Amino acid sequence: MTEPETLERRQLRELTRRFVTRDVLPHLDGWERAGEVPRALHGTAAELGLLGLGFPEAVGGSGGDLRDSLLVTEEVILAGGSSGLVAALFTHGIALPHIVAAWQRDGHPGPEPGSGPGSEPGTAAALVDRYVRPTLAGARIGALAVTEPDGGSDVAALRTTARRDGADYLVNGTKTFVTSGVRADFVTTAVRTGAPGAAGISLLVIDTDAPGCTVDRRLEKLGWHCSDTATLSFVDVRVPAGNLIGVENAGFAAIMRQFGTERLSLATQAYATAQRCLDLTVAWCRDRHTFGGPLIGRQVVRHRLAEMATRTAAARAYVRQVADRVAAGEPVPAEVAMAKNAAVSACDRVVDQAVQLHGGHGYLRDAEVERHYRDARILGIGGGTTEIMNEIIAKGLGI
Ligand SMILES: Cc1cc2nc3c(=O)[nH]c(=O)nc-3n(C[C@H](O)[C@H](O)[C@H](O)COP(=O)(O)OP(=O)(O)OC[C@H]3O[C@@H](n4cnc5c(N)ncnc54)[C@H](O)[C@@H]3O)c2cc1C
Question: Which of 200, 307, 347, 380 is buried deepest, with most CB atoms within 10 A?
């Protein structure tokens, strides 16, 4: 996206803006209070082709690549939505890619996904039919469960077990911080099928209506209020062995591969949140008068806005540059980590300054910058913390 935007992408931006203006903004405060977005919103976004972006048409997607889905993420926030809304509505962006990647690795043998009941049971094509296609159509909601109460950064230490029992796996354990976990119909779940450490981890798709699978708790949070987050408990949950994604004990690498996309999404949410807060703050500083003049007339205020704009622009340019490289198939995990940390750092500074320049009004629930200030705090924690990103960057430096 470092080249000038194509006509198609400008149209996608327009479409996203119309969707946010018409279908989100009148309701967002209510969803923040309700703690979730309605299922119907997924259907509306799917009809517009927004849910399917970045997924191949053969699995029910709308085509396009990572840059198209990042563009939608950016525009949702610039149009007055929020990173919380992105988390709630686009959770499939972290729940489905492992299934689609397994299907692609299979060279999609047998009937194409979407050809209906003909897809061989137990194949990735069958998982595409049951989970990917209806989710991209807005009819089902998926979530991703990796983190456990004992820890999230150290994925290789996870303790939820899946023991083979005849044609099924029996799953036992607890997952927490599951985005959309309260509403989810199915959860792409990281489980231990083998030895301790990274080499014993697999990914299983678990239907949330399976006996023994319960929402233990709806988590209350600092921000992302319209995004439901759950602790899920699994007690002897019977999962058909065909719900294994890819090969047994190869889950860790699959999780790490897909983290790149999630991190770029969070980086995009960070610079877009910064840009939205900058726009709101410039408008506020023009209108707000103190000591007989507008705030924007003070040099110290102008310089603060200039600094906010500079940080935001630098973050945007770098995140887009790294997104281009990832879309071109380059393995650049350290650069992805740098992009996330750079954008989160810019965002943290900008949302803080936006609230400060709004004065007391910036601290009120009805100020949009107040919501962004709270929502932004998760961006340096979710999808791998700032510290874990630094570890990846250091590894890239060979230290
Ligand atoms: C709102 C929200 C939504 C989320 N959504 C999901 C989801 O959908 N699915 C999912 O699986 N998870 C989800 N998460 C979990 C998230 O990915 C984890 O919170 C994150 O990975 C950190 O794990 P942790 O909270 O267990 O912290 P810990 O791993 O316990 O870390 C605690 C602190 O120690 C630091 N630390 C840890 N190890 C090191 C080290 N080696 N060196 C230096 N510092 C270190 C961390 O950076 C952090 O600051 C979500 C979390 C939140 C809050």
Answer: 347
User: For residue 104, what are its two tokens?
Assistant: 């692609």
Give the per-residue pLDDT at 106: 86
Tokens matching residue 42: 């997924």
Q: Cα of 84 to ligand 1 centre, how many Å?
A: 17
- State the sign of the Cα–Cα–Cα–Cα dihedral 388, 394, 396, 399: negative
- State in Å: Cα 382 to ligand 1 middle: 6
Radius of gyration of the chain (CA): 21
- Helix, strand, or coil (residue 83): helix
**Protein residue closest via CA to atom 4 of ligand 1:** 177
DSSP string, 12-75: HHHHHHHHIIIIITTTHHHHHHHTS--HHHHHHHHHTT-TTBTS-GGGT--B--HHHHHHHHHH
Q: How far apart are CA 232 and CA 148, in angstroms?
A: 9
Question: 98-138, pLDDT tens digit by residue?
Answer: 999 999 988 864 444 444 434 555 689 999 999 999 999 99
Tokens of 279: 């726009």
Low-confidence residues of the chain: pLDDT under 50: 109-118
Q: Is 391 a catalytic residue?
A: no
**Shortest-distance atom of ligand 1 to CA 224:** 1
pLDDT digits (tens, 9 = 90+) for 282-332: 999 999 999 999 999 999 999 999 999 999 999 999 999 999 999 999 999
Q: Dig out the tokens for 310 from the structure.
A: 């500079």
Sort residue 21 into left (φ over 0), alpha (ψ -120 to 50) or beta.
alpha
* 42 Cα: distance to centroid of ligand 1 (angstroms): 27
Question: Tokens 């250091």 — which residue?
Answer: 394
